[in-house]
Amino acid sequence: MTTRERKMAIGMMSGTSLDGVDAALVETDGTDIFGLGPFHSISYPPAFRSRLKNLMGRPSNGEGLDVERDLTLYHAEAVHRLLTDTGLQPDEVDVAGFHGQTVFHDPVNAVTCQIGDGPLLASETGIDVVSDFRAADVAAGGEGAPLAPLFHVAMAQTLERPLAILNMGGVANVTWISPDGGAIAFDTGPANAMVDDWVRTRTDLNFDEGGALARQGQVNKIALAALMDNPYFDLPGPKSLDRDAFEMSPVAHLSTEDGAATLLAFTAASIAQAQDLLPAPPLRWLATGGGRHNPALMAAVRHQLAAPLEPVEAVGWNGDALEAQAFAYLAVRSIYGMPLSYPQTTGVRQPITGGVFHAANGA
After folding, report:
1. What is the mean pLDDT of residues 50-64?
2. Average pLDDT, the chain
3. How far is the first Cα of the chain from the last one, in angstroms, to the nearest whole number?
4. Domains in the chain, please, with CATH?
5. Which pick of 11, 95, 134, 283 has the fewest CB atoms within 10 Å?
């Protein structure tokens, strides 16, 4: 077995909810996790979030370079704040994993697009950067997502299995971990993105905090059935979704509250249907991502599942930091040439590494 040095890595994530960037510190050799350090979050100002949202749903094709630069600088700021929090100097960090922002994801046509300027981030932080994690997987026939499952497996080594890790960000995905540590993964459907967009178009709020609007509304069963009548749910895993894969038209005629309730029920129903694709029922579900902070969503999903659902904090993980931590872990695997994805997690034909390296000194 190859012995690899431990690396100190910073991972960053700007998710499909478009709310901000998280940066987290991880010590790992690409297999085992030796330490999880602090993390820092920066919220995007509303004006920048609006500019970013305007790029969603299509390949960048060189558009939005000013947004990409600003996005990168927000990531650099998150790194600087994290270094300040920890007292570390840039030369004490071996690599930064820079996911960037997914603006378009269409693996059926072998396209995935994440914006973010890796060389600029390396220059601004003085730390070597790995970016563009998904392209190699998609080019090799994979879905390019989800990519966190290998990190979930590493984190769950001491937990009883089979186990399901449910990430409810903008899109929801599940990692199912077998008793022997193998994993399958796929996107289950929407999580927060549709409800967030609905609330922004109907109110002056950015999201339905705590599910308050959804709790005031009634689920429209006809609209819910129309939402669930989508060929995506009949596909086997692995499979993945673009943030804007589902049409809002079935709920367009509903009140703000009823629309929020119906879209929340859509998330729960699609997660419930995903149970049919798992090799065996998990003993428990652990929820991560912003959706775990929404008690209405958690209650709706819990009602649909055949096993207990708890936030990942129940096992000592930090659900706000988990995706950023995953990209720190993947960055170390990338510089060691280790696989980032497997046929069972993304549908790629064979295990494949990925990521593009950018040296801090520009070499």
Report:
1. 83
2. 95
3. 31
4. 7-146+320-358 (3.30.420.40), 157-315 (3.30.420.40)
5. 283
